[in-house]
């Protein structure tokens, strides 16, 4: 099987890659029937020379490869017909701006495997960049906190060469006795937790967090049943929440009352209650001043996130009174960091982490007859231009009817 590491062509340029040079070698060593061709790229974090040094001389024509491995959406005119492609297509939730992409995939008889569709039978995802989103998001939140309170000046994550340099920067901080709340229990939340734990911030129980005062910075990590409660008072499990989110109301304000810095790392389903509303932000009980919204659902569950921000300009202020944007240094401002492509700020580590997951969970499926059904579950389109059964719900989207 011939795999190609394709060049990223989306704008703004994304420097990540599925397999860094050393990992290409590892794949070929573990799977002697696998061979990898690298498409030349001048924007990748890992330079063409680095691939060449590992024995992978980059080339410009990869049409003889069968499986194309990329990160971001491939522009329609760059899609090579009759191949298998792996990339984030952002089509499974029917994003209107990618309808043409899915139409082209079908027209070109491409088998599409979206990285988001690579899951366990339970549906939980096997691969992703979430860990690095959490890591960079928590770091960026500390940058924002330092700016807002004139406490420190940290370099942007994108200017650091790797996670270890990021940790060195964090080691310089002298944290005040603040309370930090972190939501979620997936890859993002665990990535953010790595940063809090690296800073040796004490993790406390919900009871302690809500009721006690501390002389040092503390954090509390909460999940859906901590920040939501059933309207009828019953206490059931998180699966009840996942299936019946409409039966719940937010119970987040008790955290907002005591929190200085909030890191949003949860997954939000549209039928769930907002964590806090614009009205909640106006309340005297709302004390959050800095929000690192990694979840980044716009104008939704974290009401002060009124737009995504960018790596170039990551922080803005939200004025609860006017419900609009203001200078983040304004006294009234809740500081919001809502960059929606955080892992791009740490392309080396993010690529290495992603490559490890891809090697562990996806590559074996090509050589073991897909015994765990990973490829079968992930396959969205067939080589004769049809949606697979699992993704047949996208037909109306493809047809332009919704
Ligand atoms: N800002 C960025 O750059 C960036 C990057 C990656 C991910 N994200 C976002 O961060 C969020 C979390 O991503 P992740 O990688 O941690 O996801 P994940 O798949 O690793 O974890 C999701 C968690 O949510 C739980 N969950 C499942 N269904 C749920 C439901 N209906 N309601 C609430 N929770 C549910 C799961 O049990 C799991 O613990 C997502 O919204 C994702 O889009 C943002």
Automatic annotation (TrEMBL):
This is NAD(P)-dependent oxidoreductase. Pfam families: AlaDh_PNT_N. It comes from Pseudofulvibacter geojedonensis. Residues 4-136 form the Alanine dehydrogenase/pyridine nucleotide transhydrogenase N-terminal domain. Keywords: Oxidoreductase. CDD domains: SDH_like.
């Amino acid at each position: 099987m011939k795999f190609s590491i394709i060049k990223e062509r989306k704008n703004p340029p994304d420097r990540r890659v599925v397999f860094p040079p050393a990992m290409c070698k590892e794949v070929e060593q573990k799977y002697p029937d696998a061979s990898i061709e690298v498409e030349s790229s001048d924007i990748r974090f890992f330079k063409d020379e680095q691939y060449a040094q590992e024995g992978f001389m980059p080339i410009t024509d990869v049409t003889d490869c069968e499986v194309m491995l990329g990160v971001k959406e491939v522009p329609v005119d760059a899609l090579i017909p009759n191949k298998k492609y792996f990339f984030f297509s952002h089509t499974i939730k029917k994003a209107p701006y990618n309808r043409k992409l899915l139409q082209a995939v079908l027209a070109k008889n491409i088998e599409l495997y979206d990285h988001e569709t690579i899951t366990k039978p339970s549906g939980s995802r096997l691969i992703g960049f979430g860990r690095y989103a959490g890591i960079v998001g928590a770091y960026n939140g500390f940058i924002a906190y330092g700016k807002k309170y004139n406490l420190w000046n940290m370099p942007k994550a994108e200017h650091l060469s790797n996670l270890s340099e990021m940790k060195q920067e964090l080691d310089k901080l002298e944290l005040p006795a603040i309370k930090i709340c972190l939501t979620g229990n997936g890859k993002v939340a665990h990535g953010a937790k790595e940063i809090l734990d690296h800073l040796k911030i004490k993790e406390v129980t919900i009871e302690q967090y809500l009721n006690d005062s501390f002389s040092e910075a503390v954090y509390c990590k909460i999940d859906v049943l901590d920040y939501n409660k059933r309207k009828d008072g019953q206490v059931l499990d998180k699966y009840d929440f996942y299936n019946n989110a409409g039966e719940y109301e937010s119970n987040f304000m008790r955290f907002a009352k005591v929190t200085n810095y909030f890191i949003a790392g949860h997954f939000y389903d549209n039928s769930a209650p907002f964590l806090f509303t614009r009205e909640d932000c106006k309340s005297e009980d709302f004390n959050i001043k800095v929000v690192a919204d990694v979840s980044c659902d716009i104008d939704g569950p974290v009401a002060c996130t009124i737009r995504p921000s960018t790596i170039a300009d990551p922080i803005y202020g939200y004025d609860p009174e006017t419900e609009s944007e203001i200078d983040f240094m304004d006294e009234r401002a809740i500081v919001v960091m809502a960059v929606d492509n955080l892992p791009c700020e740490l392309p080396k580590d993010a690529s290495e982490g992603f490559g490890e997951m891809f090697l562990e969970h996806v590559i074996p499926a090509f050589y073991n007859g897909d015994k765990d059904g990973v490829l079968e579950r992930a396959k969205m389109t067939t080589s004769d231009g049809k949606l697979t059964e699992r993704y047949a719900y996208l037909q109306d989207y493809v047809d332009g009817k919704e």
